[in-house]
Amino acid sequence: MQTYKVLFLPHNIEIALNEGESLIRAAMDAGVHINVSCGGEGVCGKCRVIIEQGEVEGGISEKLKQADVEKGYRQACQSFPKSDLVVRVPIESTLDASVLKRKSVPRNMADIKQIDFEELREKGLFVPPVEKRYLELSEPHAKDNIPDVTRVVNYLKQNYHESKLEVDLSVIRKVPDVLRKDSFKTTVTLARPVREGGKTRIVNIQPGDTSGRNYAIAMDIGTTTIYGSLLDLLTGKVLSWTADFNGQISYGEDVISRIMYAEKPDGLETLQQVVVKTANTIIKTIIQRAGIDPDEISTITLAGNTTMTQLLLKINPMYIRRSPYVPASTLYPPIKAANLGFDLGDHVTALIYPAVSSYVGGDIVAGVKGSGMYLNEELTLFMDIGTNAEIVVGNKDWLACAACSAGPAFEGGGITFGMRAAKGAIEDFSIDPLTYEPMNITIGNIRPQGICGSGLITIVATLFEQGVINNNGKFNRDLNTPRIREVEDVYEYVLAWKDETSIDRDIVLTEPDLNNLIRAKGAMYGGYMTLLSEVGLSIENIDRIILAGGFGSFVDLEKAMIIGLLPEMDPEKVTYVGNGSLMGAIMSALTNRVRKDVVQVTRRMTNFELSETASYMDNYVAALFLPHTDLNRFPKLKQRLEQRQVSEQ
Amino acid sequence: MQTYKVLFLPHNIEIALNEGESLIRAAMDAGVHINVSCGGEGVCGKCRVIIEQGEVEGGISEKLKQADVEKGYRQACQSFPKSDLVVRVPIESTLDASVLKRKSVPRNMADIKQIDFEELREKGLFVPPVEKRYLELSEPHAKDNIPDVTRVVNYLKQNYHESKLEVDLSVIRKVPDVLRKDSFKTTVTLARPVREGGKTRIVNIQPGDTSGRNYAIAMDIGTTTIYGSLLDLLTGKVLSWTADFNGQISYGEDVISRIMYAEKPDGLETLQQVVVKTANTIIKTIIQRAGIDPDEISTITLAGNTTMTQLLLKINPMYIRRSPYVPASTLYPPIKAANLGFDLGDHVTALIYPAVSSYVGGDIVAGVKGSGMYLNEELTLFMDIGTNAEIVVGNKDWLACAACSAGPAFEGGGITFGMRAAKGAIEDFSIDPLTYEPMNITIGNIRPQGICGSGLITIVATLFEQGVINNNGKFNRDLNTPRIREVEDVYEYVLAWKDETSIDRDIVLTEPDLNNLIRAKGAMYGGYMTLLSEVGLSIENIDRIILAGGFGSFVDLEKAMIIGLLPEMDPEKVTYVGNGSLMGAIMSALTNRVRKDVVQVTRRMTNFELSETASYMDNYVAALFLPHTDLNRFPKLKQRLEQRQVSEQ
Asked: How far is residue B530's CA from residue B534's CA, in Å, rounded to a whole number?
């Protein structure tokens, strides 16, 4: 991809920008504030910049006078670089050059970790869970009329040195016809045992040589979204993937409401059928996209939280939501996928990720597996942030985990204008430190509609660092701006005026919103504080952080540290694994070496019920400040706040 | 049961008779000929005897004059002893006292072997395949909220020293509700692994203490009849049993016609559903008769011939009937009974008896298991006689087996008046050596309707020994009796005149009938001759014979030796195991020790395809005489035949 250098003046900050990205994006990433109200749609006309060198495409509209255009003015949100650029942000937009001394922190997102199949191979960690073998059998005759299955088994023993073979009934049913379709040339699929000494199962048989085609499916059954990947077991490559909303959403948004629905007559059956229906849609799509024969799929690996898993397996989840929160099981036997209703061959076994407890499910175990944290010396903090946030701390020697009742703030829930990370959600934000005018960038660069979780963190962190809100989550009543106002005894900050939005209402952030966010991040911080203190460690001992879940990919790490969601550390030490659950499922689908570890890892994960852990309440209450009661835990932020106070004096 | 002594004069033969059995039965068993044409219904009036001492009930009818009744005359077939008796057979019925010198051989049937559960127990061979364990679990609370399944597993480990436990999905589904039904008091059913080192599966869980109730089903899936037994796994007792015609009969009488039906569209599915329907009827009946809760049934063991097994499992059987006669498989994995359509709980595993070849099926393996012949030093000949007769020879060191195309003669097929062993079938027979008048006894003692398999053997053996037919199976053309006649170039013997039958036709035995029987018994004799010679042994080496199958229970052993179906040996050495297949299934259902041996036994059974074994044709042709080309193989018979010739000269 073509990238261009953009130098912002008078800030004198240079940043690289990908072709196709707008100057407003470059400014935001560079930490250069430009007033923008309309999310980047080009309608507010506030984001005027001067192109001093280089060439851009677009950026000219009726919002600019012809004379200004000739001087080099462009609308930053509509300008896309065609060469390296020198861009001046005019004084009218920043009001006072002194602001340049107060650099905002550039956006800093987690590195994305991906599976390196070649590395797995090189490390000897690639142990295919299913393999195909091509057989050229001799044809039976009067002196050699052993059973068809015996002929297959004998060949495997003699030519491939297989032993301890077990044959599925579905294969026995196929054998007679398959062998005679291509003159006793045939390909069998062998499912390897996870444990050493176990039996290898013959799970499929096909006419002719199909040994070059062997596929698997990995699936993350999320409460909201189901993700499915189709994998080539010979190369480890993801051939296709897709996602779809979990059809169960119609029966309740979160796990608790799903469980309540499952308690109704036929509720459990309905939810089971609905989730499988979504899964089947996904399976159909990824098979079509990859252009493969469904019969070549040998296995499916599924990961989901404990409730999603119990619903998928039609196990009554009612005790998950009732104290003392007991799940039915945390380990599941291999199950015929077709018996669960999956549109997959009779030979396909479904492997279900084991869970730890009612609220630390298979998705988290898969994330721990996918991230590899259980293999390393380093003390790692793993966080999957969402409505039900889960945290795991530990390393190759021990693992402690807990679920946090963080509430839905990180997904936009409980926030006046909160919304999911969809088009129109403010996802990036900056503020003019003198005028308190905002720079709102929305997903899709359209007029704002609300605030998504990562946007909320950025907004609150920015407002806090700029002194617009204090460490109690209250707006500074002394600032001279119409954007801070009191409506019916509630203070709020106006992010966008109604004529700049797509909803014809002022989009605001209120003090109750701030309170909700602080409680959510306090629950997280209190959670891992508690896990660490329970094992005699503290936050300083954490070597690295792994973020998982949709939220993790967009969150600005420095901002998350400013509000005290994450402990303060070098952003380089923070990794994002994306959908950790899917990643774990993919790895388990690819190699038995990983599957072999899973049960062991699950047993090693000590679950803490935070509500039953004495120290948790203290840790939680101490975290109900920005960033925390004890600012010394955030030394860099403390230094910046002190510098700001000096510069303002 | 009350028995009485009956002394027949002038023969001077005494025999014990059970109360309720007629004098004609006593005479037949004693080898005393009395003319009877009507099968024992009392209508021919020929069987007059004089009660010289003792008291009988019945025997008086309009066939007897009052004067004769006063002299002590009674109809033997209608007379039942009430005390010890002395009975004279009047000269008018035997015509000539010289016949007394020619004793016919008394009826001699095989001893019936039955399972001795206590012996199994004492020998340590009782290893229950499924066991129940009662658990009193502690209830979960905030500090102890481990998953329900983990609570169960931990208790089993701590209190019952169980290890390597695996939990079925069906159990996981039940656990949450079951535990909470009776305050965490529960009973689990454990299915033991057949192999050492295997896993114990938790297959069922029930509220409260049900450990005193644990049942199994054993079933023989016969081509004609399905037998089912309900077993108490705690005592080894058969609580109830029943049998029913295999519903597949409507789709063909024998395995070949069933296979042909299975080749039609949906034929296989239909036959599978039909056989399971019959099985379900049987299951329902035996559950009701035993008065147990179906949920307490833990396992079902099934044995059947290879075709019946493949049809039950919905495996295409078409190659079984086509050269080179290849079955799909001979070993089958454990299968959920419910998945096959059985009306049994989700927790019930079906164990299918393994087979050896297309025509030596699981029923024979079960018979070998049930008879215990694979455990003994003695060289044993095992024969399951029916349309598809199977033979096994061997001992604890080796086993050779083969299927014989004996044809249906032993089941009454291919015989002019052949019929199944049902009411009205002539099952016992004697002949007056001077007048050649018959003594026919039918099943149910009603007018004759035809001849069943065991009756046919007795008739032919008797006619042969009395010189009515020669060793070529031809009637002696020189005898002066209207009962031997030529009709349309075919010689025949009239067993019953039309007015003495229930079918208003003469019931006859023809030379083609004799030919069919000789070929059938020749196939059997040639079969075991061949197996023995292939391993370097001969018939003299056989220590004992085990007969299985419905046929075996009624056949007169001495008669079977006279026609050369069985080798000549002490009848004491012949055992009858009844339904060997059902017996093997019962034993496997009762104890894992037997199941453990099954696969090993199957592997040890060397199958011979007689049609491909060079020596078979010679052995077969040599056996196409009565009793055999080489009379020296039957020394006792030879001696009797020689004595007869002397006495006739």
From this structure: 6
Q: Which of A167, A325, A329 sits opposite B175 (nearest CB)?
A: A329
Question: HSE of B227 in the Cβ direction (CA atoms, 13 Å)?
Answer: 19
**Residues near B268 by beta carbon (within 8 Å), at least 6 away in sequence:** B262, B311, B314, B316, B317
pLDDT at site A225: 87
* Separation in Å, CA B556 to CA A280, A415, A423: 65, 94, 92
Spatial distance between the Cα atoms of A34 and A22, rounded to a whole number of angstroms: 13
- Amino acid at residue number B451: I
Q: What is the mean pLDDT of residues B325-348?
A: 93
On whether the CB atoms of residues B439 and B49 are closer than 8 A, the answer is no
Of A145, A167, A324, the CB nearest to B333: A167
Say what the pLDDT of residue B351 is: 92
How many CB atoms are located within 10 Å of the residue B61 CB? 13
> What per-residue confidence (pLDDT) applies to B111?
63
For residues A266 and B550, give the distance between their C-alpha atoms in angstroms, rounded to a whole number: 50
Q: E-strand spans in B450-540?
A: 450-451, 484-487, 490-496, 507-510
Instruction: Tell me what pLDDT residue B498 has.
Output: 93
Range A405-410 average pLDDT? 81
Q: How confident is the model at residue A106 (pLDDT cuts 50, 70, 90)?
A: low
Q: What contacts A547, CB < 8 A, 6 or more positions away?
A: A110, A383, A384, A385, A553, A555, A574, A575, A576, A577
Q: Report pTM.
A: 0.81
Q: Between chains, do A313 and B172 touch, taking CB under 8 Å as contact?
A: yes
A177 in Cβ contact with A212 (< 8 Å) = no
Any idea of the CA torsion for A17, A22, A24, A25, to the nearest 10 degrees?
A: -50
Tell me whether 0.85 is exceeded by the ipTM: no
Identify the residue whose tokens are 């000539």.
B96
Q: Is-cis flag, bond preceding A482, omega within 30?
A: no
pLDDT tens, residue by residue, B442-470:
998 899 999 998 899 999 999 999 999 99
Interchain CB distance below 8 Å, A313 and B173: yes
Closest Cα to residue A425, out of A550, A521, A585? A550
Are B394 and B374 in contact by the 8 Å Cβ rule? The answer is yes
Whether residue B330 and residue A142 make contact (CB cut-off 8 A), yes or no, is no
Report the SS3 class of residue B239. strand
B329 to A172: CB separation less than 8 angstroms, yes or no: yes
Q: How far is A194 from chain B (nearest CA, A)?
A: 14
Q: B91 vs B3, B34, B48, B68, CA distance in Å? A: 27, 10, 10, 15
Query: Among residues B151, B167, B208, which one has the least CA distance to residue A313?
Result: B167
Per-residue pLDDT tens digits for B17-29: 888 889 998 888 8
Asked if B316 is an interface residue toward chain A (Cβ–Cβ < 8 A), one would say yes
